[in-house]
Amino acid sequence: MNSALEDLLAVLRFPSISTSSENAADVRNCAEWIAAKLTGMGLSAAIHQTVKHPVVVAKSKPQPGKPTVLIYGHYDVQPVDPLDQWQTPPFQPDIRDGRIFARGATDNKGQFMSHLCGVEQTLAEHGELPLNVIFLIEGEEEIGSPNLAPFLREHRSELACDIIAISDTGMVAPGVPTFTYGLRGIACLEVHVHGPTIDLHSGIFGGSVGNPNTMLAKLVAAVHDAHGRIQIPGFYNAVRDVHEWEKEAWTKLPGEAETLRLTGVPALWGEAGYSDLECRWARPTAEVNGIGGGYQGEGSKTVIPRSAFAKFSFRLVPDQDPDDIIKNVQTFFAKMAPDCVRVEIKPGHSGPPYSMDPHSVYGKAAQRALRATFDREPALIREGGSIPIVQSFNDILGSDTLLLGLALPDCQMHAPNENFTISNYEAGIRLNRRLLQELAM
Amino acid sequence: MNSALEDLLAVLRFPSISTSSENAADVRNCAEWIAAKLTGMGLSAAIHQTVKHPVVVAKSKPQPGKPTVLIYGHYDVQPVDPLDQWQTPPFQPDIRDGRIFARGATDNKGQFMSHLCGVEQTLAEHGELPLNVIFLIEGEEEIGSPNLAPFLREHRSELACDIIAISDTGMVAPGVPTFTYGLRGIACLEVHVHGPTIDLHSGIFGGSVGNPNTMLAKLVAAVHDAHGRIQIPGFYNAVRDVHEWEKEAWTKLPGEAETLRLTGVPALWGEAGYSDLECRWARPTAEVNGIGGGYQGEGSKTVIPRSAFAKFSFRLVPDQDPDDIIKNVQTFFAKMAPDCVRVEIKPGHSGPPYSMDPHSVYGKAAQRALRATFDREPALIREGGSIPIVQSFNDILGSDTLLLGLALPDCQMHAPNENFTISNYEAGIRLNRRLLQELAM
After folding, report:
1. Which positions ≥6 away from B375 have C-beta within 8 Å?
2. Identity of the residue in A221, A223, A280 whose CB atom sits nearest the CB atom of B208
């Protein structure tokens, strides 16, 4: 375990923030470390440069006639702000109370490294693997994997596989093995409201100039009604109903009380008529991830700002199409835009929602590996987050994806003090070793 | 004129930003320069430290039996952001096309310095002044003059005067002398919406956690109806109607077309039933000077932020009371606040609206000085901005204030590339010299 932990700490030291152009060299260096590690394990590894950040691909020694599992992960991470809320620096991993604190600890370095170390230990013990393994570790997941689908198309035959395994999802509670068979999709866009050519004195011009902050607030406020229902025409058209067996199964999982505890909000919110888990896993959302306009500093500055923005992300469920959603949103805001300002919509990254049959052959094999590793019946869930590439795998490689999450509810993903428990890192390594066996049967 | 211009450039070089605690020493240094200048002119000048920034007071040699004019100005300035939009650095004054570009050029260093240089030239020419002059130049106007009213109370007898003169308002057009008899008041407050204890992953928790950005937008959006009318109960209760003679007089002034040209907005906005000038001068407003929450950087970061804020300023007209307005706003937001977040209101600085009789003895004297200086009939106007201290002068010293503005419509006050024309600086010096004569009669 010591060398596996040292390896994880080494990977966590790279500030591989994919959205920040300043960190491009760090991203590259992280890819090179991973490729060197895989090569050292005896796999044939290569770094493929894309338009932006590189993809690492490594293949075990071919064993014809045996099935092939492709293990996907991503070595890029989210930005770290607000930096002042971290107890220790995000790229100097710190171990406290059995947890490793660092940006990327759970999402996704800790999780893909457990697979990598599981393969390493299997090879060390048996000299060979029970099936063919391909690692595909990319550097653009946190910006929506813009270059991975083209990469998959280009390398389709090289990446041919029977099944895909990803650990980038959550466990419903510590110790409860969790098999995820559905993910929400995502569609991002920015709304920019442009008003006067310069920031104006709000005393001199206030009253006859539309304030971009106010006009933006009116657009944002119109997105939801008082019951949490999204008001964009056509938004719910393609939404599939939640199955009754899912509703039933989810009532046994930690729900509202746990969400209140984890988030610290005074009361939950959500679309009327749906439970906490249904709202988070099986219903679409519209979130403003960032809003800004005018004076941001200390004290007051009495201006009417020249512009204001809102960064939206919509989480989508089967069978919503991200392109359709973006069109609907554009139409909605364009119709609402008052004539005193100019409203600009900038579409961002997107990815479709995903679902698979949890009762398929490989689905059952994965559940056996989970059961054996954690000695407990796995929970069958969907998840609210998005891994857009999962649908691309399905479309391009024709394979389903097994989502074997190791993230704990309090891992602080995307937030300050992100962490991964050492016990889950160890369990992840054991899970990988068992998974290789179960999938080979 | 050369020495007057050099003096103005020297004052403009001090980055005397009163809202920024980093600039406290610059503010102090600026006060010391002004006091030294006034002492050099033969006035008895003193720097009075307040809790925050100092006040400069200077008095001419007492001439018993003659009236006393108190000339007020402020040497503090607004912040400079967005800095990248300045063509030349804000505290390195640059002369281009007959204009001096610098933060504070018009607001208010250029304007109070024209009075100071007018007094200097009168003394140089005649050896004495036709009346008693008190200069009161403060350093906290841009943060709402929190310490000036207490200072006036403490120094009431020392500052006793017959009339007050201030140049800190605008001219309706270049070359048109402008006498302002009314100002809007101001009431500032910040609304903070607190949600989860940390920024949350918007995929994992989105759907059952209220987003502070969205909840804030709903509060902001509720402030105005679709006709630009403020929806806060009681907000308009104390508002005095616009006089018919004012409505009539203002139709002759540059209006909508000029406002469109100056601001560059695609269309004007405003309270239904009122003209552009009525909306800006005689009707109250609610402006969001700054809004912010969540991710502000490049690209996307899919979070539900822990909090969001809006910085409001309300412009008030006679006889609205700032304290009443702040109470009404607090009640309005408290009632609207959804239970999924905690809404916090932080009241900021405030000041009452002001009006005087433009046909009083000193009002007419000031209009004669304006007429003589610009060789044209003065426009009688109100102004949309706030000089809260004007009402305090009235309350504490018992004197009216003559508002003799020299700011041009395109002077970019509070914005990048603030400027003051050299010709208006010269006119301001001549205006002061004539004003001293007219007030002495």
Report:
1. none
2. A280
Q: Residue A409: its pLDDT value, please?
A: 84
Residue of B nearest to A266 (CA): B340
Bridge partners, residue B189, by sequence: B312, B347
* pLDDT for residue B1: 61
Cα–Cα distance between B24 and B27 in angstroms, integer? 5
User: Each residue of B259-306: pLDDT tens digit?
Assistant: 999 999 999 999 999 999 999 999 999 999 999 999 999 888 999 999
- Please measure the distance between the N-terminal and C-terminal CA atoms of chain B and give it in whole angstroms: 27
Taking the CA of residue B113 and the nearest CA in chain A, the distance in Å comes to: 22
- CATH code: domain A185-239+284-351 is 3.30.70.360
Task: Give me the active site residues of A, please.
Answer: 76, 141
Calculate how close chain B gets to A343, using CA atoms only, in Å: 11
Residues of B in contact with A224 (CB under 8 A): 214
B246 assigned to active site: no
Question: Annotated catalytic residue: which of B26, B120, B141, B168?
Answer: B141
Q: Over the stretch B11-69, which tens digit does the pLDDT of each residue have?
A: 999 999 999 999 999 999 999 999 999 999 999 999 999 999 999 999 999 999 999 99
**SS3 of B238, please?**
coil
pTM of the model: 0.79
The yes/no answer on whether domain B2-183+353-440 falls in CATH 3.40.50.460 is no
Q: Determine, for residues A220 and B221 on separate chains, whether the beta-carbon distance falls below 8 Å.
A: yes
pLDDT computed for residue A1 by the predictor: 61
List B residues 134-173 in contact with A (Cβ-Cβ < 8 A).
143-144, 170
Q: What are the structural domain ranges in chain A?
A: 2-183+353-440, 185-239+284-351
Angle, vertex CA A50, rays to CA A45 and CA A51, nearest 5 = 165
CB contact B77 to A (< 8 Å): no
Interchain CB contact of A273 with B (< 8 Å): no
Q: Which of B26, B76, B107, B120 is catalytic?
A: B76
- What is the C-alpha to C-alpha distance for residues B18 and B143, in angstroms, rounded to an integer? 7
Whole-angstrom distance, CA of residue A364 vs CA of residue A321: 29
Digit-coded pLDDT (tens) for A385-429: 887 788 889 989 999 999 999 999 889 999 999 999 999 999 999
On whether the CB atoms of residues B92 and B102 are closer than 8 A, the answer is yes
Substitution target from A287, A309, A354, A419 for chain B, most B beta carbons within 10 A: A287
Interchain CB distance below 8 Å, B207 and A285: yes
Whether the ipTM is more than 0.90: the answer is: no
Note whether A300 contacts B383, CB cutoff 8 Å.
no
For chain A, the distance separating the N- and C-terminal CA atoms, rounded to the nearest angstrom, is 27
Mean pLDDT of chain A: 96
Cα separation, A290 vs B412, whole angstroms: 29
Rounded CA-CA distance A243/A38 in Å is 42
Asked, colleague to colleague, whether B2-183+353-440 and B185-239+284-351 share their fold, the answer is no
CA dist A173 → A254, A255, A406 (Å): 8, 11, 10
B104 and A CB contact within 8 Å: no
Which string of b and e fits B257-277 if b means at least 16 CB within 10 Å?
Answer: eebbebbebeebbbbeebbbb
pLDDT band at A441 (very low <50, low <70, confident <90, very high): confident
Let me know: does A289 contact B300? Beta carbons within 8 Å.
yes
Q: Residue A351 has what pLDDT?
A: 87
Tell me which residues of chain A, numbers 169 to 198, contact chain B at a CB-CB cutoff of 8 Å: 170, 184, 186, 188, 195-198
Give the residue among B146, B142, B60 at the shortest CA–CA distance from B107. Answer: B142
CA dihedral B391, B397, B398, B404 (to 10 degrees): -60
Chain B contact for A384 (CB, 8 A cutoff): yes
